[in-house]
Amino acid sequence: MVFSKYENSGKTVKNLRYMKENYQLYLFILPALLLTIIFKYVPMYGTLIAFKDFNGLKGIIGSPWIGFGNFERFLSAPNFMELLLNTLKLSVYGLLIGFPVPIILALMIHRIKSAGIKKKIQLVLYAPNFISVVVIVGMIFIFLSPIGPINHLINLFGGNNISFMTEPGYFRSIYIISGIWQGAGWSSIIYLAALSNVGQELLDAAVIDGANIFQQIRHVDLPAIKPIMVITFILAAGSIMGIGFEKAFLMQTSMNITSSEILPTYVYKIGIQMGDYGYSAAVGLFNSVINVVLLLTVNGIVKRLNEGEGI
Amino acid sequence: MFNKQSKLDKFILTLSNVTLGIMVLVVLIPLVYVVIASFTEPTSLINNGISLNPSQWMFDGYKRVLKDGSLLLGFKNSLFYSVSFSIISVGVTLFAGYPLSREGFVGKKFFMTIFVITMFFGGGLIPTYLLVKNLNMLDTVWSIILPGSINVWNLILCRTYFQGIPKELREAAIVDGSSEVQYFFKILLPLCKPIIAVLVLYQFVAQWNSYFDAMIYLKSAVLQPLQIILRSILVQMQPVPGMLSDTAKDTAQRQQMSELVKYACIVISSLPLMLMYPFFQKYFEKGVLVGSIKG
Question: Binning pLDDT at 50, 70 and 90, where does residue B1 land?
Answer without folding.
Answer: very low
